[in-house]
Amino acid sequence: MRKAWCTAHLSEYTMSSHPAVSRRWLTLAAFFALYVIWGSTYFGIRIGIEYWPPFMMAGLRFLFAGGVMLAWLLWRGEKLPERRELVGAAVLGVLMPAIGNGFVTLAEKEVSSGVAALVVATVPLFTVLFGRFFFGQRAAGREWAGIALGFAGMVFLNFGSNLRASPTGAFWLVFASAGWALGSAWSRVIAQPKGPMGSAWMMIFGGLALLAGSAASGESLHAAPAWQGWAAILYLSVFGSMVAYSAYLYLLRTVTPAAATSYAYVNPVIAVLLGVMLLGERIGAHEIIAMVVILSGVVLISWRKR
C-alpha cells in the first residue's frame, strides 16, 4: 500500500510539475530568440536596404511573415478574431512593426547597425513610462534603477561621432523606440487576438501600413534586387518576424514589461559584433563605454527574486 501510495503521488507530482518545466524552457527559448536572433536582424536590415527601399522592404517582410502565419493557423482550423480584436491588432501593428521597425529600417540608411541597436535601448525606458502614466502599470524600484542606468548610457552615446553626424537618423530611432514601447505597454490591456493569431494580424496590419507609407513617400525599385536582397527579406521574415516577434509577444504576456524589453540591452552586443566583423563598421570609445553602461542595466531589469 505504501509503495502504491508513493507511486501514485510521485506520478501526480511529475504530471503537475511538467507544465511549469515546459513554461520555463519556453520562456528561456523566447529570451534566446529576443537576445540573439533579434540582435542579428540589424545586420539583416543593413544588408537588405542596399537592395530595397526601407519602408518597402519592411512592409514586404511583415506582410509575408504575417500572411504565412495566418494561412497556417487557418489551415489548422483556428477561428478568425472578433472585430474589436482586429482593431486592437491594427493599432499595435501600426505602433510596433510599422513605426517601431519601419523607422529603424529607415534610420539604418544613415546610422550603423550597431549604433541603431544601441539607440533602441531606450525602449524599456519608454515602456515603463507609458505603462506607468497611461495604463496604471507598476514598476519595481529595481526596474527603475536599471532603466536609469540604461538611459545614462544613452545620454553618453549621443556624445559620440556616429549620432552627431546624423541627427535625422537619431531622431527616427528615438521615434521608432517610442512607438514600439507604446505598443508594448498598450498590448497588456488592449483587446487583441490571442497567441500566434495576434502575431499574424499585427504583422499583416503593420506590413500594410508600411507599404502605404512606401507608396506615399514615393519609394520605388530602380532594378530587380540581387539574391542578397531576397535572402535578407527571407531571414527577417522567418527568424526576425515569425520566430522572434512571436517570442516577444509571448514574453509580454508572461513576464514584466521591463523584462520583456530587456532585449534592447543585449541586442547591441550582437549587432555591434556582426557589424564590425561582417560589415566593417567602426565603433568608437563613446559607443563602447555606452554599451557597457547600457548592458549593466539588464542585470537590474531582469533580475528577479525567487
Describe this structure in words.
The protein is mostly helical. The chain has one domain (42-219, 229-302). It is built from 13 helices and no strands. Helix 2 (54-75) runs antiparallel to helix 9 (195-216). The protein is globular and about 50 Å long. The relative contact order is 0.21.
What would you say about this model in short?
This protein is mostly helical. It has helices spanning 2-48, 54-75, 83-107, 113-119, 123-134, 141-157, 161-164, 167-186, 195-216, 227-254, 257-260, 263-279, 285-302.
Q: Report the β-strand fraction as a percent range.
A: under 5%
* Distance between the amino and carboxyl termini: 37 Å
Poorly predicted runs of 5 or more residues: 1-17
- As a whole number of angstroms, the C-alpha radius of gyration is 20 Å
Output the helix-strand order: HHHHHHHHHHHHH
Helical proportion, percent range = over 70%
Structural class: mainly alpha
The helix count comes to 13
Largest sheet: none
Average pLDDT: 81
The total domain count is 1
Structural shape? globular
E-strand count: 0
